[in-house]
Amino acid sequence: MPRSACLRLLIVSFLLCAPRALASEGYQLWMRYDKIADDKLRVDYTAATTSIVLATPTGAESPTIAAARDELTTAFRGLLGIDANIHLTIAQSEKPLGSEEFTLVSGKGTVIITGGSDVSVLYGSFDLLRRLQLAQPIDGLALREAPKISRRMLNHWDNLNGTIERGYAGRSLWKWDELPEKLDPRYRDYARALASLGLNGTVPVNVNANIQFLTPEYLKKIAALANVFRPYGIRVYLTARYSSPMELGKLPNADPLDAAVIKWWHDKADEIYALVPDFGGFLIKANSEGQPGPQSYQRTHADGANLLADAVAPHGGIVIWRAFVYDAKVADDRAKQAYNEFVPLDGKFRENVVVQVKNGPIDFMPREPFHPLFGAMPKTSLALEVQITQEYLGGSTELCYLAPMWKDVLDADTFRPRPGSTVAHVIDGTIDHHALTVIAGVANTGSDRNWSGNQLAPANWYAFGRLAWDPALTSAQIAEEWTRQTFSNDSRAVSTLVPILMASREAVVNYSMPLGLHHIMARGHHQGPGPWVNVGRADQTSVYFHKVDEQGVGFDRTATGSNATGQYASEAGSQWADLATCPDEYLLWFHRLPWDYKMRSGKTLWTEIALHYQHGIDTVRGWKKSWENLRGVIDDERFTATQKLLDRQEHEARIWRDVCTQYFATFSKLPLPSEYESPEHPLDYYRKLPAPFTATNAPVTATN
Ligand code: BDP
User: Fold this and answer.
1) Helix ranges restricted to H, 513-635
2) What is the CB-side half-sphere exposure of residue 519 using CA atoms within 13 A?
3) Angle formed by the axes of helices 186-197 and 216-229, to 10°?
4) pLDDT at position 20, please?
5) Cβ contact 88:112 at 8 Å
6) The pLDDT value given to residue 646
7) Is the backbone peptide bond immediately before 204 cis, with ω within 30 degrees of 0?
8) Residue 517 near residue 546, CB atoms below 8 Å
């Protein structure tokens, strides 16, 4: 054979034999059940799982058990190439299991999944599958699992017209014009994704509520969705516009103490429960950013919440009342206003009300200290609300793995009533003995094939679900789980992607709002920098927050300024108030400092600001290099898509850096440090760009 033919044969046989990563559009999320490549493992698994026993309180078939069977069957065929041998039986547990609790016991070729309910058997099934996907041993298991927080929910900010407020992954998943007759098969996959993480609630529609969703026509559509979600243990909740009794019921007012208003809500609740018997309850944004609320009638948030709570109580429903309130007419620091309004109401809410508090006192900024309400309302159930969609952290055009940010708040010590009282323990009810416990994440889902706008953003959906189940998990552990399930168990995938994910939040903070700077993004769409924003509602402008001038920069929130530090337990507040102990990351959140302020590093504040911006973009450049390690290790589709994502991120990081440092330099009048790379364009160039970041898909309904 001539040499060239020989070579050709060699290449062809190499191509045929080389293991190729399976192409993926990312639709399967972390529920990829591709064949386990390692033969040895496959043999071991096959031997370890000749049969799977599902043990439930009744031992009877149900739609939930059918869902568990389906998932196990599909996954076993995909992962191991075998048909799972599944039996159903009555649970024989010595210690009764909670309604969401399960045990996994295995040995001698049998895995027994015992649940306190059918849904917990489904959770146990997903737990087993996760272990298989992670290539962990499944022989000799003896574990017992239960979630720490009872209601673990996604909040969708989806509008009736198919747009999504702060959505960056295409249009809404919910096809209102097709419902209730036509059910997109994607609704079931959505439910599978939630159940795989143990999420058990969804609010499909925007907190900036539309009254249409409470009409009989739309309630039927909601009921159709609820029917799809029910077997997966997911309850539907609804947002409601506080003025609905006027707009829908034609009543003259919506006063929470008015008898006709009370009756209207009771009737509406009865109507909803007739269609959706396991309806979760209402999520309410009231007297916030232009939304109507009880204060229009000189009533309090408690009066407002209790009205709705009484309407749903006979059906076992709850009310989730948001504490995201601030008022431009109030002279006090915006960061203090929710605390000022809500703390006096502690003890005045009904048992079935939970007050939902954002992680920080302003608004999902890249970095905020924890919200001072945590620990300050012991007689009230408090929920934590985080934002999975990246409104202030790059939309879907930048990678930012958010688990480290959520861990900051979950692990933060409120010191109330005693040291060790972390936010996680406030919201899981253990500190103040609350049975009603809630955690919510503002979803990053849309109808894009990959669900979240890019191939890495589902890591945040995954991380939220895992932390909602167990806030004690670490960010790194979750990042590794997600990487293995979503991409590959290949050690190169793990050793490349996990460090990138773990560094990403800090990088975004560095190139956008370092050292405690906050709320300096562009107006309206919030994508990209806008440190010059000085028009509109004062408490929504950038200048309100950075307070920059020739002398210095930062917001004095110590006793010499707004005294927001005084809203925290003294151990936390005084640590931040004292420059000697305030961590650099919160410096300009709590202090206003001169440009030549000497930092711990020995450099001046001005130099440190510039270098943080530079460091942020340098980190992104580092990822671009290390991403190359994954060429051929993961599938080409996701490899290339992510490469483009990182290119775009570098571009956007550069805009942030160039804009912010040049803007601040017009005040500091100081030169940029020598390590700082020259800006690509002068400040004026950027100021004239209409919207350099155009990732948003929807006009926002909020005013800011
Ligand atoms: C802000 C968003 C706005 C939301 C608001 C909220 O910019 O679109 O309506 O939060 O949480 O972050 O209500």
Assistant:
1) 542-546, 570-577, 587-590, 605-627
2) 25
3) 60
4) 53
5) no
6) 98
7) no
8) yes
Q: Exposure string (b/e) for 426-442, b if CB count within 10 Å is 16 or more?
A: bbbbebbebebbbbbbb
Under 8 Å between Cβ of 697 and 170:
yes
3-state class (DSSP) for residue 203: strand
Residue 479 token pair: 């990042």
What local confidence, expressed as pLDDT, does residue 180 receive? 98
Catalytic residue check, 61: no
Helices (H), 513-569: 542-546
The predicted-structure confidence for 467-525, as pLDDT tens digits, reads as follows 999 999 999 999 999 999 999 999 999 999 999 999 999 999 999 999 999 999 999 99
Domains of the chain: 26-145 (3.30.379.10), 151-486 (3.20.20.80), 509-555+592-687 (3.90.1330.10)
Tens digits of residue pLDDT in 392-413: 999 999 999 999 999 999 999 9
Which residue, 70, 216, 74, is CA-closest to 133?
A: 74
Distance in Å, CA 702 to ligand 1 centroid:
6
The one catalytic residue among 101, 127, 303, 363: 363
Residue type, 383: A
Place of tokens 């076992």: 316
CA–CA dist 260, 248 (Å, integer): 13
Q: Which residue has the tokens 């399930």?
A: 485
Question: Where are the alpha helices (H) located in 186-234, listed in sequence order?
Answer: 186-197, 216-229
Q: Which helix (H) or strand (E) holds 523?
A: none
Q: Which of 289, 506, 635, 658 is catalytic?
A: 289
Strand partners, 142: 105
What pLDDT was estimated at residue 5?
52
How many other CB atoms are there within 10 angstroms of residue 337's CB atom? 18
How long a stretch of residues is the chain?
Answer: 704
- Count CB atoms within 10 A of the CB of residue 217: 11
Query: Which residue positions in the chain have pLDDT lower than 50?
Result: 1, 6-7, 9-19, 694-703
- 255 CA distance to ligand 1 centroid (A)? 25
Residue with tokens 């004062």: 538
Alpha carbon distance 482, 652 (integer Å): 26
Nearest-CA residue for ligand 1 atom 4 is 702
Q: Which helix (H) or strand (E) segment is 155 a member of?
A: strand 151-155
Active site residue 391: yes
